[in-house]
From TrEMBL:
Quaternary state and interactors: LSm subunits form a heteromer with a doughnut shape.
Organism: Anopheles sinensis (Mosquito)
GO cellular component assignments: precatalytic spliceosome; U4/U6 x U5 tri-snRNP complex; U6 snRNP
Encoding gene, per UniProt annotation: LSM8
SMART domains (UniProt xref): Sm
Entry similarity comment: Belongs to the snRNP Sm proteins family.
Domain Sm: from-to ranges: 1-75
InterPro entries associated with the record: Lsm8, LSM_dom_sf, PTHR15588, Sm, Sm_dom_euk/arc
Keywords, in A-Z order: Acetylation, mRNA processing, mRNA splicing, Nucleus, Ribonucleoprotein, RNA-binding, Spliceosome
Protein name: U6 snRNA-associated Sm-like protein LSm8
Gene3D superfamilies xref list: 2.30.30.100
BP GO annotations: mRNA splicing, via spliceosome
PANTHER family recorded: LSM1, U6 SNRNA-ASSOCIATED SM-LIKE PROTEIN LSM8
Coiled-coil annotated residue ranges, if any: none
Length: 95
């Protein structure tokens, strides 16, 4: 778990087992990887429209739903035009 400590107070992208993508500032986590994000939003992908960014603010993600956590490069992310990006939504992870 110590790997997540270096992400605290940094912007992260989280993909959940149900195929959702959340971006926000990692404020904390516990031993079961329950995640607290601040200033967060969900990125909703579509093949017909740009990426919709749904503002969530303070958000908690249950650890059993976390599939991937990665630090986001804000300098690259801020240059992207999400209205022009198309992509298929992720399918849920099947166990």
């Amino acid at each position: 778990m110590s790997g997540l400590e270096s992400y605290v107070n940094n912007t992260v992208s989280i993909i959940t087992a149900d195929g959702r993508n959340f971006v926000g500032t990692l404020k904390g986590f516990d031993q079961t990887v329950n995640i607290i994000l601040d200033e967060s939003h969900e990125r909703v992908y579509s093949m017909t429209a740009g990426i919709e960014q749904v503002v969530l603010g303070l958000h908690i993600i249950r650890g059993d739903n976390v599939a991937i956590i990665g630090q986001l490069d804000e300098s690259i992310d801020s240059k992207l035009d999400f209205t022009t990006i198309r992509g298929m939504p992720l399918e849920p992870v099947v166990h």
